[in-house]
Amino acid sequence: MLADRDQRYRMRLNNWVQTYPLHVRPMLQWDSSEALHDSSGNTYFVICVYISDHLYGLGQHHSKRRAREIAAREAIHCLAREGYSVA
């Protein structure tokens, strides 16, 4: 279930980028941290979604897949606030 949501959000972002002609296509980048540890010893991951060098989504969670889903969902919401339709 979680993998499905993660994939759906990433596919929506990838499909949105593909709607643009190649010469004006926004660049979609995923940046992920190695496993990080807080002062209590808990492990977590930070995932960032950049579109044309602007941060659009940030996800932090102990599961890398969940962090990626949070970042993608946040990027989609941010794009929607700017008037883009990411179906």
TrEMBL record:
Query: Where is each DRBM domain found?
Result: 8-81
Could you tell me which Pfam families the record lists for this protein? Answer: dsrm
Q: Which GO terms describe its molecular function?
A: RNA binding
Is Membrane a UniProt keyword of this protein? Answer: no
InterPro entries named among the record's database cross-references: dsRBD_dom
- The reply on keyword Lipid biosynthesis is no
- Key words of the record: RNA-binding
Q: What is this protein called?
A: DRBM domain-containing protein
Natural source organism = Pterulicium gracile
